[in-house]
Amino acid sequence: MIKIYRLIFLLVFPVLSVAQQEKLLSSHNIPSDLRENANAVVRLDDIHIEVKSYNKMVYTNKRIVTILNSSGNSQVGTSMGYDKNVSIRKMEARIYNSRGKEIKKIKKNDFEDVSAVAGGTLYSDSRVKYLRYTPVDYPYTVLFETEVEYNYTAYIRRWRPIEGFSISTENSRYVFRYDPSNELNKSESNFEKFGIINQSKAGEIHYEANNLKAILYEEYSPSLKDITPYAMLNLKNFSYEGYVGNSNDWEGLGKWMHEQLLLGRTRVSEKTKNEIMTLVSGLDDPIDRARLVYQYVQNNTRYISVQEGIGGIQPIEALKVDEVKYGDCKGLTNYTKALLDLVGVESYYTRVYASPNNIVDINKDFVSFLGQSNHVILNLPYEGTNIWLECTSQTSPFGYNANFTDDRNVFVIRPDGGEIVRTKIYTAAKNLLDAKANIVLTEDGDIEAKINLKSYGTQYGHREGIQNSALKEQILHYKDYWGYINNVDILSMSYSNDKDTIVFTENIQLSAKKYASKTGNRLLLSPNFFNVLSNVPTRYRDRKLPFEIERGFHDMDEYVILIPENFEVEALQNETLIENKFGKYSYTITENGDNTLLFKRIFILNKGDYAKEDYEDFRNFYLEIVKQDQSRIILIKKS
């Protein structure tokens, strides 16, 4: 009888599985709550990873996703990278219409096959296969099946059951099988509040998620992976391109990386050695020597991505960079370190996740060889502080790393071990834009102005690039920057870029017709000429997410306004001061007694993480600033 039951199970279960899959292929079966705020619905994402040996693992995935509209096309997820250590055994996609009828089948050889790296890369064997499909109607569903073999175990694919904003997930499963004698590093976050089912046991990690509703993006939202379920795994003992390593702790991993990947790669030619020693001759201060070496690298090399060596992890030798005069972030950083070694300046190769848009930390509690960094910079410890060098830039000032690698945990690799260190934090006070102007107002409401702008910190990085643009582009830049001023004419521009103190200065002369509105014998004048806040954070009736301000800033404006001799002030605003946890705003305008007015404005926005309940107060803070910035004074003709 037992045998009969087993036979029935074996015959019936596949039928049930087929029936279940058919249900997932039709968009009509998507639960209504998963459609809300969604551009795409992941119907099924079934991931299995099995470690076969110390240097081999197999990844299989069945993925069914329904694309509801054109904004969801980027979420198809039908791509797979490969190289000499990654073999795609199986890759197939099927496209279904809204009723679940198959309309197209794509086999492995029908996928587009392109280089996995950008055109600026000199050479690389990394490639990617992806599906090129232009939908004829919405919604449509894609079934994507893959099987991939990896000849390493150093990186294990992460699990993110919520893949992005405006994407809901019906079913997601992640199974990782391994030899339990090889310990696992593990990081699990935000499981409980999303009802994640965790059925893990010795030798197997098993997660499941069901019916996760789409999350709508809200302005100032934190990174999605910080507020939704996210899991990272890696084996403490791993292999990578013939190397066997251990990631018990950051100290040991750093020591291993130094010995296996960096040691013996800092030799340079005798010619270069002599040039460098001559360059720093007579300088006792190590930072003075480091500045000259950094400038030498900037003047004599250029950045080109070179994806070679150990999986793009090991730098090419300094001697090679010395010969060809180019390198990627790894090669140029290692080369700079080699030259600093020559002149007796301590420096360390450092891995970081670089991003101009978001501050991304290395998780100090999750020790990993791969997966938490995408860039290399150089660390110079000096008198209890740290200096950070961006070695890929030919223009960046010495020690400047704002807007790219600032304020985040990085992995510093030293001969005696690695360490997680925080890079420089650019506070609001340091991110200063100091604006001064002298303005002449005519009785017709026209203005002429000379403006001096000095930018520091992150604001330096936002502004200094304008000097390298064509003249026409510079003029268009300022016309756009002051786009609220009608009939503006840019008369002259000059710049000073002090890389020693890291200050960028702009001197602009402009004129504008009818800036002040003339009404009878009065002029209505907006005294905040050149730094008017007009954008207000989006209003949400019921905000769902917390919010964050990743970088603060400080704007300081002071204008001297010469009014016509035959006019006088009829009405001025009262002094304004707003100060709260989000920042500070002050606004004053006073008479000087010599037909001049003095306008002063300060706006400080603080970095911070805030609860969703604080958002309305934050928005009101901006609303009040916008109101003050756009306010006007009244000048009246003398009788």
Structure notes:
This protein is of the alpha+beta class. Helix 5 crosses helix 7 (329-342) and helix 6 crosses helix 7. Residues 8-16 have low confidence and may be disordered.
Q: Radius of gyration over alpha carbons?
A: 30 Å
Overall pLDDT metric: 94
Strand order of the largest sheet: 5-4-9-2-1-10-13-12
Number of strands: 38
Distance N to C terminus: 114 Å
Largest sheet: 8 strands, mixed
Continuous helix count? 10
Q: How does the helix and strand content classify structurally?
A: alpha+beta
Helicity range of the residues? 10-25%
| Strand residue content | 35-45%
Outline: globular
- Name the poorly predicted regions: 8-16
Entry summary:
Helices cover 19% and strands 38% of the residues.
Write the layout of secondary structure elements.
Elements: H1 2-25, H2 32-35, E1 40-53, E2 56-67, E3 79-82, E4 86-96, E5 102-106, E6 112-115, E7 121-124, E8 127-130, E9 140-150, E10 167-177, E11 184-189, E12 197-198, E13 204-212, E14 230-235, E15 237-240, E16 243-246, H3 250-262, H4 270-279, H5 286-300, E17 302-303, E18 305-307, H6 318-324, E19 326-327, H7 329-342, E20 348-352, E21 375-382, E22 385-389, E23 409-414, E24 417-422, E25 432-441, E26 447-455, H8 457-463, H9 471-481, E27 488-498, E28 503-512, E29 517-519, E30 522-525, E31 547-549, E32 553-562, E33 567-571, E34 576-580, E35 583-591, E36 596-605, E37 608-610, H10 615-629, E38 633-637
Parallel strand pairs: 1-10, 7-18, 17-19, 25-32
Antiparallel strand pairs: 1-2, 2-9, 3-8, 4-5, 4-9, 6-8, 10-13, 11-14, 12-13, 15-16, 20-21, 20-23, 21-22, 23-24, 25-26, 26-28, 27-28, 29-30, 30-38, 31-37, 32-36, 33-38, 34-35, 35-36
